[in-house]
Design goal:
The structure holds 2 protein chains of 2 kinds. By secondary structure, chain A is mostly helical. Chain A is built from 9 helices and no strands. Helix content of chain A is 69%, strand content 0%. In chain B, 72% of the residues lie in helices and 0% in strands. Classes of the chains: A mainly alpha, B mainly alpha.
Chain lengths: 193, 181
């Protein structure tokens, strides 16, 4: 495959090739960011199918706007902005209510418990499951931008500077949102502290 | 299940945000060092910091998905892109080279052109004055007698008017005649 030689190329080099019409190399960027894009969307939607659709839509949008990418930010902050905006639009459309997440299917509960590899006894599993539910509730109850900041920092590991760029805001605002989100989360898990 | 609600000891207000940033290793080396020194001396802030270490990883859900999922995902994205490329309609290609500013400029020019056209058309309409006589239908034109007939219609109308005038004159004369008899 011709793309093999470009596997180690920088994002900006690949973007430049896409801008020149070599659309097939976009596949490399998809490979690099698909997991993170999917996870962001999953954090927002809690629905694997929706997350897949939204994150794939973000790639399509990125591809169709690739010529508008001017290199003022890194590709991934530019791309994260697209993903986050698509997810926020989705949230706006769905107008999800806070308590909606409480209606879990039993299968989902089992799947989540399987992920808790640090606990073993049935009691501990139940506690961990309950704590996880509290975390989800607290995340759902947060204002959208606060939640986005938290998810991008805590789940995606983006730096505050990158989050500020992705969300087109200041680093100071991101710090405030992050602090509030963490404080709210700690408060919601007060019984497990 | 533990359900007892505890009163959480608050961290120092002026340090709480810094403690969050410290957890995420955000900030300069000097700032991080300052926070660490404070944590060493302040029990509530140390507790806050410990809570973050224990609780925040719980908020991270990482479900490992099989490689086949990602292979399909990637293939689907590229397939959708290829489909979209194929669907690009001819007019998009036509307007693709246009700069973004040319579209509103083109639209503005079109509106202006339409405005001028309508204005001139209105002026020409007003200048037209009296309406043009209707053309004579072809079937009438083919028969010269018919043409003459229709042309004489004006004369017939004129004659009837003359008769009316004549009638009114004779009415005026009649009383005068009777008087003379």
């Amino acid at each position: 495959m011709e793309n093999t030689s470009l596997q180690n190329a920088r994002d900006e080099e690949i973007v430049a090739l896409c801008q020149q019409g070599k659309s097939e190399v976009f596949d490399i960027l998809v490979g690099r960011y698909m997991e993170r894009a999917y996870r962001i969307a999953l954090d927002f939607t809690h629905d694997p199918e929706e997350a897949k659709d939204l994150s794939q839509d973000a790639f399509l949008r990125a591809f169709s706007r690739i010529k508008q990418f001017d290199g003022r930010s890194t590709f991934y902050t530019w791309f994260y902005r697209l993903v986050v905006n698509i997810c926020l639009d989705y949230m706006r459309r769905k107008k999800k209510v806070v308590w909606e997440r409480l209606e879990w299917s039993p299968d989902e509960g089992v799947e989540r418990r399987e992920l808790m590899d640090t606990v073993s006894s049935p009691d501990a599993v139940a506690i961990a499951g309950e704590a996880q539910r509290k975390v989800d509730e607290a995340l759902e109850a947060m204002p959208k931008r606060q939640r986005t900041v938290f998810l991008l920092r805590n789940q995606q590991g983006l730096s505050i500077s990158d989050i500020a760029k992705a969300m087109e805001t200041t680093e100071g605002t991101v710090r405030v949102y992050l602090h509030r989100a963490v404080a709210a989360l700690r408060q919601s898990l007060v019984e497990y502290v | 299940m533990r359900k007892t609600v505890k009163n959480l000891p608050n961290a120092c207000k002026e340090f709480e945000e810094d403690l969050v940033l410290h957890y995420y290793n955000e900030g300069s080396a000097a700032e991080l060092k300052r926070v660490e020194e404070h944590i060493a001396l302040c029990a509530p802030c140390r507790k806050f910091s410990d809570d973050l270490r224990r609780l925040l990883p719980q908020a991270t859900q990482t479900e490992e998905l099989p490689q086949s999922f990602w292979d399909n995902y990637r293939r689907e994205v590229m397939h959708k892109i290829a489909e979209r490329e194929e669907r690009r309609s001819w007019w998009r290609d036509l307007f693709a080279p246009m700069q973004s500013w040319t579209v509103p400029a083109f639209a503005g020019a079109m509106v202006l052109a339409l405005g001028i056209t309508f204005t001139l058309d209105k002026v020409a309409w007003n200048r037209g004055g009296e309406p043009q006589p209707l053309p004579i239908p072809q079937e009438i034109l083919s028969d010269p007698n018919s043409v003459e007939f229709f042309k004489s219609m004006d004369l017939v109308e004129a004659l009837s008017k003359l008769e009316e005038i004549e009638g009114s004159k004779s009415e005026q004369k009649a009383p005068a005649g009777a008087h003379s008899i």
